[in-house]
Amino acid sequence: MVLGRSFEDMCAQMYYRGKMFGFVHLYNGQEAVSTGFVKCLKPEDYVCSTYRDHVHALSKGVPARAVMSELFGKATGICRGQGGSMHMFSKEHGLLGGFAFIGEGIPVATGAAFKTKYEREVLKNDKADAVTVAFFGDGTCNNGQFFECLNMAALWKLPIIFVVENNLWAIGMSHYRATSVPEIWKKGPAFGMPGIHVDGMDVLKVREVALEAVARARRGDGPTLVECETYRFRGHSLADPDELRKPAEKAHYAARDPIIALKKYLLESGLVDETDLRSIDKKIDEIVEDAVEFADASPLPPRSQLLENVFADPKGFGIGPDGKYRCEDPAFTAGTAQV
């Protein structure tokens, strides 16, 4: 959780210094959800994220250097600089993407869960027991993909967990103004799956729920819908002045900071002392500083990379008769803007 918080704080600094471009959505305040769920998974399990995906990537084991470089648009990034903030992806780590539009990741996650079931039941692969976790926000729960995939997952008993990160605001729209039944967890039983509400500011409570949901999915008992009530400490994105939420509401949730709460629990339980906590902070600061230095020193992607991974057919539009990418020819992009 400390890595997630420190990384996002550094992203804010780098964005305002002009090192990052486009929209950057930070995860501050929601760390207990990502940590509580992802740390219950195996390396071969899958995670589908949203546009607020940096910390999900870090939780899944993607190196901080690779995530920061992607945010800088550098060739050493996790997607070679072509994905940016909202499109983190790593086959190696089972991270099936961040998605710019809400609800996009839910069908992808449902498909990944179907893959596991197909491998196990049709291809008779007894080792196929991967669990998929789909993260999305409260605003997504009024979209059609959400309901369609709940139905499909329950019908086929797919090994998937639908995790709603309910931070109470869909950009600038209050959850309570936009949803006829604001208790999202109640939509699980409507489709024949468990629906659970948990305090998303308490990592231990999230972990307890996650362990049961993961075990249920892995043993073949089907999906679970989990609503984690959480809160983002910053605006929707770094371009959002965050003027719509009331100061009293923000102060209420700031007082429930999941990192401070866990530190207090660890100290009161005698599990750590202040020296241990300071050493963690120091270690994380070093990791984040190293990630920034690495990203800043990394090269930009070459122009020849422009049309790679666009066309599946190697003889398609992007390849010339000589077998080289058309964009390698200086005349192909002559006159276009240089970024």
From TrEMBL:
The keyword Oxidoreductase applies. InterPro entries: DH_E1, PDH_E1_Alpha_Subunit, Pyrv_DH_E1_asu_subgrp-y, THDP-binding. It catalyses: N(6)-[(R)-lipoyl]-L-lysyl-[protein] + pyruvate + H(+) = N(6)-[(R)-S(8)-acetyldihydrolipoyl]-L-lysyl-[protein] + CO2. It holds the Pfam family E1_dh. Its EC number is 1.2.4.1. CDD domains: TPP_E1_PDC_ADC_BCADC (cd02000). It comes from the Eukaryota. Its cofactor is thiamine diphosphate. One of its GO terms (molecular function) is pyruvate dehydrogenase (acetyl-transferring) activity. Residues 1-301 form the Dehydrogenase E1 component domain. It is an enzyme of class 1 (oxidoreductase). Keywords: Oxidoreductase, Pyruvate, Thiamine pyrophosphate. One of its GO terms (biological process) is pyruvate decarboxylation to acetyl-CoA. The keyword ATP-binding does not apply. Tetramer of 2 alpha and 2 beta subunits. The pyruvate dehydrogenase complex catalyzes the overall conversion of pyruvate to acetyl-CoA and CO(2). It contains multiple copies of three enzymatic components: pyruvate dehydrogenase (E1), dihydrolipoamide acetyltransferase (E2) and lipoamide dehydrogenase (E3). This is Pyruvate dehydrogenase E1 component subunit alpha. It comes from Ceratopteris richardii.
